[in-house]
Design brief:
The complex is a heterodimer of chains A (341) and B (308). Chain A has 14 helices and no strands. Chain A has helices spanning 2-31, 36-41, 47-56, 63-75, 89-124, 129-143, 146-160, 183-189, 193-230, 233-240, 245-283, 288-297, 301-329, 331-339. Chain B is elongated, with a radius of gyration of 24 Å. The chains are: A mainly alpha (341), B mainly alpha (308).
């Protein structure tokens, strides 16, 4: 019962946040100087086309009515036509988003796994050279912007060492039919293992560039929460009862220590999506961020709204999931939230 | 402390009377804090890095070896030279000294951080105080739900979107970052304020008829000062990164002005052969942000020790 209340509360909150976000995006897109109709039809279109278009875009109505139309269209997944690609924005998003999501998920996995390994190593060997090395590394990881990592990685691992390809998602020689839009999954579905490996190799550098910051931050948090918990009485009593060190680490220590890591993970995932904007530019990755970037540079309002709303939805959904996981890990949180604090 | 002083304070457990005692030793506290701060080598590295960069930025025209290379300038004879004794960081594709441009680039980055924080902190703090003080009222819901909405998009994406709709320049980049950054301060102050809302010193101020500004700014705000300053020091770094990212995609400092992010993105076209064009400005960003982070962590440790 408690858990259900918690889930409902959280979902309600998410819907509210998305409504607010749509309001902000709508406002921002109407503040922009210039006539959206002229932008849409081009400067040489005759006046009657402009008038028709204005009617069609509901621009003659009052602002709240305009928002209503825009919102209903957005709910149906209709963000209008992109001025750059001259196609429906929804179609563009459908085409480009899987590439970005694949990149973000891959980097999320890298950061989480890496953080757990480094964090627990650091806590286990606290105040030794292992711990110190990991801490210095995580410090550098936190302060280095992802686009700097991307440039350094391209330079070192792609150009100088020649271990990885520099741009794109897969070698042009492979022709993989699009099914899910995830290159790795599509190549597996096609049964082409060499293509799959090529896609993975293309993923590694950009994903690592995005993952470095979150990895460092999560490792740091894992370390401190593990170190805190290691000093607690229940660990001492487990040791006194003769439970093996390995079992203590995996069964008794990991679960409570995961809570702060998982909570920060939601924020990091969002930051990763944002950083994908810059990393995709450097790796010429054909994803939503690059699409959004070119939309922004050409003031393509429909596309900008669509892209931002997509990122907002992903972010909110990820955060709800993270909250649910955390509540699953820590009963205190869901009890408190369900009571209504 | 003299015996006489102690006698005049009847109850040392009373926080109000104790506050009077503490006030006399404020200078002493400051000296002790400074001593503790200097004991931590990392904090000192941070402080020295930040101070050095500030000095470099302020006196850039006198320190930079080729100050004229910041203005429209070309020297194709010396273009794309690798790092050497004359040009420590090498020269770019039209022969400008990269070291000089990095030194001037610090100016834009520091300005970005300073201006944004100066605008954002008062707004965010005021809203946080109000929301925390009027807890569980419509003021609280309105302000805090608005912060939720702003925090629902990665700051970089929101800032990019806003900056892209406006004209691309440094001012609009600052505006965009400001719009994305205030909710963090509101949240921070809200947390502290709602914890203090029902403490005795607040309720007694209310009972004695203190006005709202007095309660907010004289009673509650002083308790938020240390977390705010710590966050500001850490945020300088993050805001600088955000500004550099905007410049990197062409929405911040416009060429030929030497923004650090602008220089990095300009140099990516010449990778890998002329790597120094983008790598040195990129490392400059890292050093600058590292300095502010070390400093901020030092401050945080200091305040944390004070509280306990």
């Amino acid at each position: 019962m408690n858990y259900v209340t918690f889930v409902l509360k959280r979902a309600f909150h998410a819907v509210f946040v998305l409504l607010g976000l749509s309001l902000i995006i709508f406002t921002v897109s109407r503040i922009m100087p210039g006539d959206p109709v002229r932008l849409a039809v081009g400067s040489r279109a005759p006046q009657w086309v402009v008038d028709n278009m204005r009617e069609q875009m509901h621009l003659n109505e009052s602002i709240p009515v305009q928002y209503g139309h825009w919102f209903i269209d957005a709910l149906r997944g209709d963000f209008g036509v992109s001025l750059v690609t001259r196609r429906g924005v929804a179609k563009d998003i459908h085409e480009f988003f899987p590439a970005t999501l694949e990149l973000a998920l891959f980097s999320a996995v890298i950061s989480l796994v890496g953080a757990l390994i480094l964090g627990s190593l650091s806590a286990r060997y606290k105040d030794t050279w292992v711990d110190n090395a990991i801490r210095v590394w995580s410090y550098l990881g936190i302060v280095t912007p992802s686009f700097v990592f991307a440039i350094l990685f391209v330079l070192i691992f792609a150009f100088w060492l020649n271990w990885f390809p520099t741009i794109g998602r897969i070698d042009r020689a492979f022709d993989i039919a699009r099914i899910t839009g995830f290159m790795t999954i599509d190549s597996l579905l096609a049964g082409n293992l060499r293509a799959f490996w090529d896609a993975v190799v293309h993923l590694i550098l950009p994903a690592c560039a995005i993952a470095m910051g979150p990895l460092a931050q999560e490792a740091r948090i894992t370390r401190s929460s593990m170190a805190d918990n290691l000093a607690k009485d229940y660990i001492a009593s487990a040791r006194a009862l003769g439970v093996s060190e390995r079992r203590i680490m995996s069964r008794y220590l990991l679960k409570p220590s995961l809570i702060p890591t998982v909570s920060i993970f939601g924020l990091d995932f969002a930051a990763g999506l944002g950083n994908a904007f810059l990393v995709e530019l450097i790796f010429n990755w054909p994803g939503l961020s690059r699409y959004g970037m070119s939309a922004m540079l050409s003031k393509d309002l429909n596309a900008i709204s669509g892209v931002i709303l997509t990122f907002g939805v992903v972010f909110v959904v990820v955060n709800v999931i993270v909250d649910l996981i955390v509540a699953q890990l820590d009963p205190r949180i869901r009890l408190r939230a369900a009571k209504g604090s | 402390m003299k015996r006489r002083d102690l006698d005049s304070y009847k109850d040392l457990n009373d926080p109000v009377q104790l506050a009077g005692l503490k006030r006399d030793s404020r200078r002493e506290n400051r000296a002790r804090n400074w001593y503790k701060f200097t004991r931590n080598p990392l904090s000192m590295v941070g402080l020295i890095t930040v101070l050095t960069i500030v000095v470099l930025a302020v006196f850039a025209p006198f320190i930079a070896p080729y100050p004229e290379h910041v203005k429209p300038f070309t020297d194709f004879k010396n273009a794309s030279r690798p790092p050497s004794a004359e040009h420590w960081f090498g020269t770019d594709e039209i022969g400008r000294d990269i070291l000089s441009r990095v030194i001037f680039g610090f100016r834009f980055s520091l300005m970005m951080g300073l201006v944004v924080l100066v605008i954002v902190v008062p707004i965010g703090v005021l809203l946080g105080l109000l929301a925390g003080y009027y807890q569980n009222s419509w003021v609280d819901s309105l302000i805090m739900r608005t912060t939720d909405v702003f925090l629902a998009v990665p700051p970089l994406i929101l800032a990019l979107a806003i900056a892209s709709i406006l004209q691309p320049n440094l001012f609009n980049a600052m505006l965009a970052v400001c719009l994305t950054w205030w909710p963090w301060y509101t949240r921070l102050v809200y947390g502290v304020t709602s914890g203090l809302r029902n403490e005795f010193f607040v309720t007694s101020a209310e009972v004695t008829g203190a006005r709202l500004p007095h309660i907010l700014f004289r009673e509650i705000l002083p308790n938020c000062v240390s977390p705010i300053f710590t966050k500001m020091s850490l945020d300088m770094g993050w805001v600088i990164i955000l500004g550099a990212s905007l410049s990197f995609v062409g929405l911040g400092v416009q060429p030929p002005r030497p923004g650090l992010g602008t220089m990095v993105s300009g140099g990516t076209r010449y990778l890998p052969d002329q790597w120094w064009i983008s790598v040195f400005p990129a490392l400059a960003i890292v050093v600058l942000v590292l300095g502010f982070n070390l400093l901020g962590d030092g401050l945080r440790d200091l305040f944390a020790a004070e509280d306990s």
